Amino acid sequence: MNILLAEITKLDGKNAGNKARADVQSILEGLGFKHIHLYKKGYGKIKIILSTILALIKTFFIVTKGNCLVVEHPYTYSYERMLSNFSKFLRKNKHCKTVLLIHDINSIRFGKIPVKKEILLFNNYSHIICHNEVMKKFLIENGCKSKIVVLGLFDYLIEDKKRNNFLCNKNEIAIAGNLSKTKCGYLYEVPENIDIKINLYGIGVKEKDLPPCMQYKGAYTPEDLPDALIGRFGLIWDGTSLECGKDIVGNYLRYNNPHKASLYIASGIPVIVWNDSAIASYVVNNKLGIAVNNLLEIPMALNNITEEQYAVFIKSINDEKKKLINGEHLKYSINRILSD
Questions:
Q1: Which of 124, 231, 253, 296 could form an S-S bond across to 84 if both were Cys, CB 3.0 to 4.6 Å?
Q2: Phi and psi dihedrals of 6, rounded to 5?
Q3: Stretch 69-73: mean pLDDT, rounded?
Q4: Pairing, β 197-203 against β 271-274
Q5: How confident is the model at residue 11 (pLDDT cuts 50, 70, 90)?
Q6: Count of alpha carbons within 13 Å of 207, Cβ hemisphere only?
């Protein structure tokens, strides 16, 4: 029996932080994986330990040679180490495939632990599912020995609905997610006279500090947000700088595929990305949007896009959307591993 060993994840109100993991669980369960629960959020420390031990014992007795075990990453470092050692133990004693599905790499994202220390944990898995070719190259260069499969984009399971972005103003864009100054400090640096209209959706915003070009539209659940978004494009940008990549938060875009990209595409909205982000080549090559070096370039870039060019973006977005809302990226990655 193939197994997903993961916490019990449920969507948490207007915070989209659990959406990616909840979708992973839905997709794998649809592929016949048994979800063995590690623990449930809200458990105390002792209950987490006991619940985890029971889950590992149960997994050991269920999994057999040729089966596949999937573990998501990250948790806390000590918890990751325990799961990594369990993977090593299973591979040795059960001769099964063990897969680490990377949501984030904390050594790059936060810089609090050495990269090679985190990758040592990765090497106890037979396979890794990572975001993109840039991340794959980074892992290999830093000593990752596992077989690596590239996901492409995170899936985003929602009901398929049509929208008409042509009704939006040409210079109107949307920004969704964590809008705090730590995550999106650049918002508060945008010049007052910039010729774009920005609609904001999410949590953590300081409305009184926003420039006049921005309007806060509120926070929504991950299911309701796609219907609420208004904009010809969705912006993917992090950090404190209009140029991006100037701090550790913005620099992380050089390696990851933000879940925000999946939200926009599943919503039927083309994207604007940083030119040096890892996702930029995927966006540009697949005609899913545009890449810029600096946020100040956006007004001119939008003005230069013809209605014919925008129609091409919409067609490509709708094609990609069908994959995301049906879980095709993860299904393809898992099936590659199962047939390996």
A1: 124
A2: -155, 160
A3: 98
A4: unpaired
A5: low
A6: 10
Looking up tokens 């300081």, which residue turns up? 206
Are 107 and 118 within 8 A, CB to CB? yes
CA distance 256 to 279: 7
- Residues across the chain: 340
DSSP, collapsed to helix, strand or coil, labels residue 66 as coil
Fill in the DSSP letter of residue 301: H
Q: What is the DSSP string of 251-287?
A: HGGGT---HHHHHHHHTT--EEEETTSTTHHHHHHTT
Distance (Å, whole) CA 213 – CA 215: 7
- From residue 30, give the alpha-carbon distance in Å to each of 99, 122, 156, 326: 17, 26, 15, 11
Token pair in block for residue 331:
């299904």
> 80-100 pLDDT, tens per residue?
999 999 999 999 999 999 999
pLDDT confidence of residue 41 = 82
Q: Which residue has the tokens 């190259």?
A: 137
Query: What pLDDT is attached to residue 40?
Result: 87
Cβ burial of 300 (10 Å; 0-12, 13-18, 19+) is exposed
Contact of 259 with 22, CB cutoff 8 Å? no
∠ at Cα 55 (53, 61), nearest 5°? 105
User: Tens of pLDDT along 260-309?
Assistant: 999 999 999 999 999 999 999 999 999 999 999 999 999 999 999 999 99
Q: How far apart are CA 52 and CA 57, in angstroms?
A: 9
Judge whether 274 and 186 are in contact, CB under 8 Å.
Answer: no
In the 8-state DSSP scheme, what is residue 113? S
Taking alpha carbons only, the member of 234, 292, 290, 298 closest to residue 263 is 234
Which residues, in sequence order, are CB contacts of 35 under 8 Å at separation 6+?
3, 4, 6, 25, 28, 29
Residue 165 confidence (pLDDT) above 90:
no
Global pTM reads 0.95
Question: Who contacts 275 (Cβ-Cβ below 8 Å, separation ≥6)?
Answer: 291, 292, 293
